[in-house]
Each structure stands twice: as structure tokens, then as C-alpha cells.
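Re: that backbone. C-alpha cells:
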């Protein structure tokens, strides 16, 4: 077995090095010439030998135990190794017939690596088997945990770099074992690759002793096994022994959990693999230690084209693999061929990684009619009801989980906020997963719950990505301000998705859905730190029309948006709504129309031939805009106004004209020349970008939004401080009414005085009483006609 593994690794290592250096003479049949070397040497060598070692051994285990296994590679910069193995096992040729598994295909793969418009330098969605780019490091472990949820037969082996392991997201993801019920989920087999170095220095893990490492990972709840290439006389024998033990332990733990005979915390194995970085390459160049040092991280002998010493060392190194003994141009050595798993079992061809059938099943959604707020309420009555969008969504999500019970493919991801964000109706059906000890007074906890709670947005985001990319449905509910913690992960996911959407063999996957609640407007009690509507900015910057941000004005609209998000595919959706009860403005039918069209004129609040347009996006801003309009109507009954609601920002488009799906012309909503006052949930700048392309005269738009003047104060004062309150909006309308000739200058002055005084009086009131006055809190629109 050892010689088989060694041959396989030799072949894979050669293919890695060849990809980094060669533009010709790929099989080294001729003496190496400088012209055979790529003009720009790009790629990362150092991590590759460790990945190849691991891949070869995993192949052996897959064959031995007939495993369903996928591989998540944290150090995505080790893509030459991923690609080398895809070529060796035949997966690359399966998906890329123009890269056949022969010498022509080899030449193409090698030449095209990191070549303009060729194969990328990092793991990427165009590579089979890949569900993580590993460009931005830290997310491998959480992604692997997401993939194995509800996949009891799957093992996700996960290589974590020792530099990557220093990241916050990886540090927290070790704890995810505490969410995994071995009876109903698969297993992650973490392989912490201690090659000792990151880009330019030693890693912390690399300098920890065995005792320290064992204590740390036992403390996390793993059974760590060390495989040390420096110490073992026969490192292959040791890796075989450890992998055998690990697979058997996984199967035994799962079996006991299924039999309900597991008497203690499940303790899954993990492997700590110590190898030299840049293993089996150039030991030194001049007085610089290369192999087993950080200098091997990227390209070594990078001056080979111009420096004859480096050139000689490079040729000697490439020839040391004796690749000609392993590959005859058509086939690999028989023993290597035998190590490649059966077609369906190849690590690079795990069907779990590619979406579509059989793993993706469209979610079955209950009809929303019975959840609609005040379905029978007559909206002409002044108070049609106050309803919490989040409570409605909680009830709906509970029943979605129930309805899809047989498939076990719907989950809620929540950073400790299922109650706080008011989606706890789900606990009428399910619980929070928690496999560590329970106490009698714990509530809504069990080993196998559909809700994954952990106070790590990073871990949740990573898990959700792994879950969604393997075809299952999930929603991440977060405080609006703190979802910013994963803004960069969301960006990285968007990049992956953008490319994956174009890859023909990647099947359907559900959308990745966020609900941002506990929004800044009602975080007045928690203060400035809890006020941040910026997450949507990054989402809206993603070009390509696959991101949507919904601003439902009420609970009915929130339900409709959520229904659409859950049934959509291959998108990123963000729903922004409050958890406290707010007025119902729309019947279910109106809400459906609003979400479909994204922008709509609300007739009940609009006059014919308007002299001014009020618009809003967001629930509190909508309430204030309507309150502002009712003030203006009471003061200037003759002034004609229109109300436009924006419920989805993708509908307005941002930057990319393909995304503009407005049913009517922009002017049909916003007129061609009237003043438009928009009350926006987020930063005004966010909406300004959207509008920039639309109007010949941007000066007629005024955008109110969160201007970062938050504090610990009352809810209405939060709005006053940011000029999104009814009084400031009314003051703007008075000035427009004067400009339109609807009132005299004297009347304007009188109104300005009156409402500036109201603002001042409110300020005095809240300081004295500690709450908003009742006429503000209890305001209602009045009858709809
Ligand atoms: C979040 C993040 N920070 C920084 C980098 C830049 N970077 C690329 S590779 C690397 C070192 C990685 O070291 P390690 O995880 O040990 O990988 P290996 O030694 O296997 O190459 C760094 C810092 C990155 N890709 N992602
Ligand atoms: Mg390293």
C-alpha cells in the first residue's frame, strides 16, 4: 500500500509543480529550456504536497470503507493540488471534455493554470467537487459542518491550514461539533494541516507541543490523532492507522447514537497532520531555507528563467518525481489507477457538491392566506390591526419545517436570537440542536433540532453556505447591526454564486436567505452600537441581478416576500423588517402585487395629479411618511400628494440596467418634474446610487435615511435625530407646497414655526418623561377610502 500511495502522491506533486512552472515540455521528455517556463510564475506550492498526501490517503479510505465522502479544502490557494487530483481521478475530464485524461489533456491543464482566461489560481466554482473558494481564509470548517447536516451517510473531510486556523471564524467553528446529532447527521473529519508556516512566518499551531494540541482539541470535544511526518518512520502506516481509527470511530458513534446507546458526549475524531511546508522540493537556494519554511509558500526558484542556479535546481526538482515512470501519456501506473475510487465515490465528484437532483428538492410551502395578518380585517377601518412581521414569519417557518419534515431539508440559523427576534413559533414544532449535556430547566433544546443557535455569525454563515450549496433550504435571522460581522463572507459567497450560476453542470440550489430584524430604528434603547443598516450595501453592489433586498411595509408584505425568498433559487435575498407590531397597510393581494412589482403607488394615500411625491422603503419609514402626509393634508387640504412604496431595491436596480424590472416607466411613479421626498430605512447614500441613473434632475429628490446620528433615546426621537420623522417630512412638504403655489409665504412661515416648535417640544418631553408622547405612539392613519 505504501508504494501505491507514494506513487500517487509523486504523480500529484509533479502535476502541481508542472502547473506552476511549465508552459511546454510538460512531460519533461526534452531537456528543460528557459522557454518551457511560464513567463509569470504564479501559484502556491507550499501547501500542495500536504493536500496531495491527504487526498491519496482519503482515496484509500473511500475504497476500503466504501464511503460517501467530500473534501473541503480550506487553503484554496492550494488549487494546483485540487486540480491535480481532479485530473488524476478523471473528474476534470468528465466535466471538461477538452481536458482529456491523456497527455494532451495534461498539457492543457498545466499550461492553462493561472494563465489569462485559463484555470483560476484558487479553488473556484468551476472546479468539480468544490463548495468553498478558500480565497478568503477561515470558512472551511463551518462550510463542511453545513454540508453534513441531515446527510447521515456523508463524511466531509476538511483540510484546515494552520494559518487559517488562526482566524476567528475557524477558531469558533471547532465548537460546531456540539450541534451535530450523530444519529441524524453526517460527520466532519477535520484535518488540521500543520505545515508550520503561513505566508511569511511560523504559525501558532505549528509551534505548539503535542500535549498542548491534544489538550486544546480534547477540550473542544474531539479525539485528536497526530500524524507527524517528521517523527514517524513510516508516515503512511501511521496515516492509514489513524484514518482507519477515525472512520471506525465515526461509524461507531453514529451507530450508538442511532441505537440510543450513546452514554456520553459524542467525541468525533480529528487529525493533526504535521508535514514540512513545500515537502519534497528544493531544500535551499543559496543560504535561504526553502522547504520546511515559509519561503516555500508561493513560487520557489521564482528566478529560474534568469538565474542558472535556480534553473538547475528547478529541473532537478521536477525530474525527481520521475513522472515518466508513472504516466505513459494515456494511463497512469496500474497501482495509481487502482487507488482512484469508483466513479460515483470520487472526492471531486461528490454529487452533494453540485446541487440539483437528488439532493435539491424544491421546498413545499403552505399557502400564506391563513397566516396573513387580519385577513378578514377591513382596511377601511382606522385600526386594521397591529401585527409583528417576525411573529408571522415564525409561524410560517414553523409550518414550512413541518410540511417538509420527510425531507429534513429546512433549517433556521440564529445567533442566540430566536426568541429575541420573535421567530420562536418554530419551537412549537422543533427545538434547538444541542448535543452537549442538558439541564432540566433548559427549554427548547434537544439533540436533533432544526434550529441552529450559536453566538457566532461566522459559524452560522459558513454552515448555511454549506447547507445551501449542498441543496438544502435555510434562513439566517440576525440583528440588523450585527449581520455586518459576516458582510465579507456574504460578499465571498456572492462571488462564488455569481460564477456557479454560469456553470452548466451545477444544478439548482436554494437561495441564501437573510432576515435582518431588530432594526436600528427600534434599537433606540440599546444605543448607537445597535444601529447599522449597512449590510444591504454590499449585497446591492453584487452585479448580476441575483440579489434582492426587500423592505416590506407591513407583516402581510413581509410574509409574501419571505414566501418568495424561500421558493426562489440561486439568489441571495435579504428581508429587512421589524419585530414589533406595526400597522397593516396592505391586504394580502396588495402585498403580493407590491412584492411582485417592487414599487407601487398606494392609491388610498394618493391624489390625482400630484404636486409632490412621498415615497418610502422600510416599515418605520413608511409609517412616518404616511404620518407626515396626514399632517400636510390636515394643514393644507388642497395640496395634492402621491404616495409610492418601494418594497424591493432590486426592482429599482442599482448600477446595472438589466436589474430594472419596473413595470412602468420611472416617471409613472415619480412624475417627471415634481419634488420627491423619500423616507428610506438605510443610509441615504445607498438609495442615491440607485437613483443616480434615473433622473435627469437629481435635485428634485430628497432622501431621508439613517445618517449615523443614533443614540440611546426614545423610538420617535431616533427618527427625529435622523430627520426621518413625520415633522421633518411635513416641513419639507410645506416648502414644496409654497413653491407649487399652494400656500402663501406667510402661511409657510406660520407652519414652519409651528412644526419646529413641535420638534423642540418633543425633545423637551422625552427628556422629562423618558418616553414618547401618546399622540405619537398611538397615531393611526384614519379611514382608508
Ligand atoms: C482572511 C484572509 N487573510 C489573509 C489572507 C492572505 N493569505 C493567503 S494564504 C495565507 C497563509 C495561509 O497559511 P495556511 O493556512 O497555513 O496555509 P498553507 O500553509 O497550507 O499554505 C494568507 C495569510 C487570506 N487569503 N485570507
Ligand atoms: Mg500553513
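Recovered sequence:
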Amino acid at each position: 500500500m505504501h508504494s501505491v500511495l507514494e506513487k500517487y502522491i509523486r504523480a500529484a506533486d509533479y502535476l502541481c509543480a508542472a502547473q506552476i512552472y511549465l508552459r511546454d515540455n510538460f512531460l519533461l521528455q526534452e531537456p528543460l529550456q528557459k522557454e518551457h517556463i511560464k513567463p509569470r510564475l504564479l501559484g502556491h506550492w507550499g501547501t500542495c504536497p500536504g493536500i496531495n498526501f491527504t487526498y491519496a490517503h482519503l482515496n484509500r479510505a473511500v475504497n476500503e470503507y466504501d464511503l460517501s465522502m467530500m473534501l473541503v479544502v480550506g487553503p484554496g490557494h492550494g488549487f494546483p493540488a485540487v486540480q491535480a487530483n481532479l485530473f488524476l481521478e478523471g473528474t476534470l475530464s468528465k466535466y471538461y471534455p477538452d481536458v482529456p485524461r491523456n497527455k494532451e489533456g495534461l498539457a492543457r491543464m498545466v499550461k492553462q493554470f493561472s494563465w489569462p482566461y485559463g484555470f483560476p489560481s484558487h479553488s473556484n466554482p468551476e472546479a468539480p467537487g468544490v463548495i468553498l473558494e478558500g480565497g478568503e481564509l477561515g470558512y472551511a470548517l463551518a462550510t463542511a459542518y453545513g454540508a453534513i447536516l441531515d446527510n447521515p451517510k456523508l463524511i466531509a473531510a476538511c483540510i484546515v491550514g494552520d494559518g487559517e486556523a488562526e482566524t476567528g471564524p475557524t477558531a469558533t467553528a471547532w465548537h460546531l461539533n456540539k450541534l451535530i446529532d450523530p444519529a441524524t447527521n453526517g460527520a466532519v473529519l477535520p484535518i488540521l494541516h500543520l505545515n508550520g508556516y503561513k505566508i511569511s512566518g511560523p504559525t501558532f499551531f505549528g509551534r505548539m507541543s503535542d500535549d498542548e494540541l491534544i489538550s486544546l482539541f480534547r477540550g473542544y470535544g474531539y479525539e485528536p490523532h497526530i500524524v507527524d511526518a517528521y517523527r514517524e518512520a513510516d508516515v503512511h502506516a501511521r496515516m492509514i492507522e489513524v484514518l482507519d481509527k477515525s472512520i471506525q470511530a465515526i461509524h461507531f458513534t453514529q451507530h450508538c447514537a442511532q441505537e440510543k446507546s450513546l452514554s456520553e458526549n459524542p467525541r468525533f475524531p480529528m487529525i493533526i497532520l504535521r508535514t514540512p511546508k513545500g515537502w519534497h522540493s528544493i531544500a535551499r537556494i543559496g543560504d535561504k531555507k526553502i522547504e520546511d519554511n515559509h519561503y516555500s509558500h508561493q513560487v520557489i526558484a521564482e528566478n529560474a528563467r534568469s538565474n542558472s542556479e535556480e534553473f538547475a535546481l528547478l529541473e532537478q526538482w521536477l525530474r525527481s518525481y520521475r513522472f515518466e515512470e508513472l504516466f505513459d501519456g494515456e494511463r497512469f501506473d496500474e497501482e495509481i489507477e487502482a487507488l482512484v475510487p469508483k466513479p460515483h465515490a470520487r472526492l471531486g465528484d461528490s454529487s452533494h457538491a453540485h446541487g440539483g437532483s437528488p439532493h435539491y428538492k424544491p421546498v413545499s410551502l403552505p399557502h400564506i392566506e391563513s397566516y396573513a395578518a387580519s385577513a378578514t380585517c377591513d382596511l377601511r377601518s382606522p385600526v386594521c390591526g397591529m401585527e409583528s412581521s417576525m411573529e408571522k414569519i415564525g409561524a410560517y417557518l414553523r409550518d414550512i419545517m413541518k410540511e417538509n419534515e420527510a425531507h429534513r431539508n429546512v433549517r433556521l440559523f440564529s445567533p442566540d436570537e430566536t426568541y429575541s427576534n420573535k421567530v420562536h413559533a418554530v419551537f412549537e414544532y422543533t427545538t434547538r440542536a444541542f448535543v452537549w449535556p442538558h439541564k432540566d430547566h433548559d427549554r427548547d433544546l434537544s439533540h436533533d433540532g432544526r434550529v441552529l443557535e450559536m453566538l457566532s455569525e461566522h459559524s452560522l454563515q459558513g454552515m448555511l453556505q454549506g447547507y445551501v450549496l449542498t441543496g438544502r433550504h435555510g434562513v439566517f435571522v440576525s440583528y440588523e447591526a450585527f449581520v455586518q460581522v459576516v458582510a465579507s463572507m456574504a460578499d465571498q459567497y456572492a462571488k462564488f454564486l455569481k460564477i456557479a450560476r454560469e456553470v452548466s453542470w451545477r444544478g439548482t440550489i436554494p437561495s441564501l436567505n437573510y432576515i435582518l430584524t431588530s432594526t436600528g430604528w427600534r434599537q433606540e434603547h440599546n444605543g448607537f452600537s445597535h444601529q447599522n443598516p449597512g449590510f444591504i450595501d454590499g449585497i446591492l453592489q453584487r452585479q448580476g441581478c441575483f440579489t434582492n433586498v426587500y423592505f416590506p411595509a407591513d407583516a402581510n408584505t413581509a410574509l409574501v416576500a419571505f414566501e418568495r425568498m424561500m421558493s426562489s433559487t440561486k439568489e441571495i435575498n435579504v428581508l429587512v423588517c421589524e419585530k414589533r407590531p406595526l400597522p397593516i397597510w396592505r391586504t394580502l393581494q396588495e402585498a403580493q402585487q407590491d412584492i411582485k412589482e417592487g414599487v407601487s403607488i398606494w392609491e388610498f394615500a394618493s391624489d390625482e395629479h400630484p404636486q409632490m411625491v412621498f415615497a418610502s422603503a422600510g416599515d418605520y419609514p413608511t409609517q412616518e411618511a404616511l404620518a407626515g402626509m396626514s399632517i400636510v393634508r390636515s394643514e393644507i387640504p388642497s395640496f395634492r400628494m402621491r404616495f409610492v412604496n418601494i418594497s424591493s431595491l432590486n426592482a429599482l436596480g442599482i448600477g446595472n440596467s438589466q436589474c430594472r424590472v419596473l413595470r412602468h416607466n420611472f416617471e409613472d411613479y415619480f412624475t417627471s418634474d415634481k419634488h420627491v421626498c423619500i423616507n428610506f430605512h438605510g443610509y441615504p447614500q445607498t438609495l442615491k446610487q440607485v437613483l443616480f441613473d434615473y433622473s435627469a434632475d437629481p435635485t428634485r429628490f430628497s432622501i431621508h435615511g439613517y445618517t449615523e446620528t443614533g443614540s440611546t433615546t426614545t423610538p420617535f426621537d431616533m427618527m427625529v435625530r435622523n430627520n426621518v420623522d413625520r415633522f421633518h417630512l411635513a416641513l419639507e412638504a410645506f416648502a414644496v407646497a409654497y413653491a407649487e403655489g399652494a400656500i402663501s409665504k406667510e402661511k409657510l412661515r406660520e407652519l414652519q414655526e409651528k412644526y419646529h416648535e413641535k420638534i423642540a417640544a418633543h425633545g423637551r418631553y422625552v427628556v422629562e418623561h423618558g418616553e414618547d408622547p401618546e399622540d405619537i405612539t398611538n397615531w393611526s392613519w384614519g379611514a382608508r377610502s
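DSSP finds 25 helices and 22 strands in the chain. The first helix runs from residue 2 to 21.
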